[in-house]
Amino acid sequence: MPLSPSVPRTLRHTRAIQVDAYARDDGLWDLDARITDVKTRDIALASGLREGGDPVHDLKLRITINRELVIVDAEAASDAVPYPGYCDTIAPAYKSLIGLSLTNHFRLRLKDRLSGVLGCTHLTELSLILPTAAIQAYANDVIKTRDGDGADESTVRPFQLDRCYALRVDGPAVAKYYPRWHVKPVPS
Predict the structure, then answer these.
(1) 100: how many CB neighbours lie within 10 A of its CB?
(2) What range does the domain containing 154 cover?
(3) Which of 16, 19, 86, 112 shows the greatest Cβ crowding within 10 Å of its Cβ?
(4) Is residue 50 part of a domain?
């Protein structure tokens, strides 16, 4: 279902986030993440004029993860920044992601290591989406979601249950697609 029609308006800014997942030949996985911010008009920054259409931010982050979703390598790059010579020197700090598990308190540990002046606000924000991007990349490949025929025959609860509103164990989607794992809702 689309959004409702908007009132007349003018585009001023576009933020784009993209994550590409790659299975590597060595058995590891790479997640290449990118965030860009582009203004439609010229803007004056303390560092000088940025022309409309030129990115204010063009930042990249690559993490390499193993089958347990633990980060074994990390690399950042800042190709467009508002303060050249300053913003683009933080990339080495993102090596501190190495050793973190994407599924075990990742966001909390990320905050401890790279929040505020310890990192780049935008690269750290980009890092926040990596756990769910990895789960999507791994689903039915490394993480067995058991969707499709015979999905409800296993004795192991499917990974995705109780991880979102639609797949809550007391909800109608679980009752329909995973009846074995459905729990009757508690009346309120």
Answers:
(1) 25
(2) 145-188
(3) 19
(4) yes
